[in-house]
Specification:
Ribosomal Protein S5, domain 2; four-stranded mixed β-sheet; single chain; alpha/beta; 37% helix; five-stranded parallel β-sheet; 504 residues
Length: 504
Amino acid sequence: MTAHVATVAFAGIEVLPVEVQAQMGSGLPAFAVVGLPDKAVAESRERVRAALSGLGLALPAKRITINLAPADLAKEGSHFDLPIAAALLVAMGILPGEELAEYCLLGELGLDGRLAPVAGVLAAAIAAGAAGRGLICPAAQGGEAAWSGGAVLAPSSLLALINHFKGSQVLARPQPQMAKDRAPDLDLRDIKGQETAKRALEVAAAGGHNLLLCGPPGAGKSMLAARLPGLLPPLSPAEALEVTMIHSAAGALAEGGGLLRRRPYRDPHHSASVAALVGGGQRARPGEISLAHGGVLFLDELPEFPRAALEALRQPLESGQVTVARANAHVTYPARIQLVAAMNPCKCGHLGDPILGCGRAPKCAAEYQARLSGPLLDRIDLHLEVPAVNPADLSLPPPAEDSATVAARIAQARAIQAERYARPAGRRPIRCNAEADGTLLEQVAAPDAAGRRLLVEAAERLRLTARGYHRVLRVARTLADLAGEAAVHRLQVAEALSYRRVTR
């Protein structure tokens, strides 16, 4: 007899259907798993055997073969434990194969039969619903899977699943859960002085622009970046689902799962490798740039990052996605982020200070800033020099404007952009000005005659590249949106040009 149970494999956040086939035949007792299983799948034999033994069930003394079809697709992860165990129980006549065929199963088995959480449950639930099936997953992830809208069973153990299909226990349908809130967002009122930097932060948030802050230690660069998430609008339902799917595939959801409601904020250490930033490793996991999708990626001490890691960011910053190519994997992850980077002007950080500066200036600054390539800097819309904080500013009362006030202006500008970029048929979705390009950008951000003359003259003097020219237009369009103006004028072009100052 051959039993069939449906499960899935993952290629990035893409879900691929897999059928678990279990056959018990005559011959010497054996238990084999075939179909390109990795080490975790191969070890599931012992976990399944121990879990069944804990229920008082012994595998028959037959030749047992588990086939994971299609056989040419690599199978990775411990989530195959539950479907393998279920297929064996169907073959043994303990579970009804007809009823189980209506579900897709995934979950890791403990030696006592309890089900442990696995990665990718939300994506699997959505794929199962699209295929007309329900989902059976561990109890801890039932609230995550329930967002798919399909039928979900979330047993806590293999015994609970058996009892449910036997009719001696009824599993309640889990309810959708929201992720637990992280600490409250930090407020702009905590930062005294630095009004120009706050303005640049508002512009970056309003248009989704990348931002580079350059200044001495203690100027407040990290504090400014940490307050950006509090200025951004909340995730839309579609964005929340996509962001949660990425974190679920990476196994990065907090205990209990749930839909993420707030934009991600990732701040990896400058020792991060290429694989840590853009994704990779043996299983081609998503990197920090994908985990920050829909939110902010903050890179502090930018020149201290490995050169190869920084150069690997160039293509994702343009395309909004990253492709991880390996000999045994080729997967694509979304990576539409807002990059905020911070750096010191030189190694000692006090360039131009007659007292604190080192004796190698300006050569030390040239060498330090040369760690950043021109093409990478060209992809950053806003370049801002952050001066040292004036001690007199620290004694002043908190600023009148808090994050909520600034966020309200940003929300108005984002609403204007959402209406402007309402998606026509056949065009990729555009959320903000930073994503507009080509003919569309020329249509929505064309400056008036005075602004165009200024832009052309500045482009020639500053030797702007074509990419830099268009990024000035994007920033100018955002400045006009913040001012509530339909057209881009010379004033917005001038301010946008002031943010194109090359750090070096």
